[in-house]
Design goal:
mainly alpha
Amino acid sequence: MGKEPFFFERVKHYLGEALVLLGALLLFTGYLLGWTKSNVFLALPILIILGGIGWYIRRLKN
């Protein structure tokens, strides 16, 4: 395609850690607000965390 935007160049090194943190914060916030009855809400942060772990491992291997 071409060169990536400048912002993405600076952020992509930390994107895995940020996704894991975002997923953990969503789980914690959902627990505090009592949204734990919905499986959709519980699955979304888990997928975000797994995506962050995958991004982090991919960055380490490159």
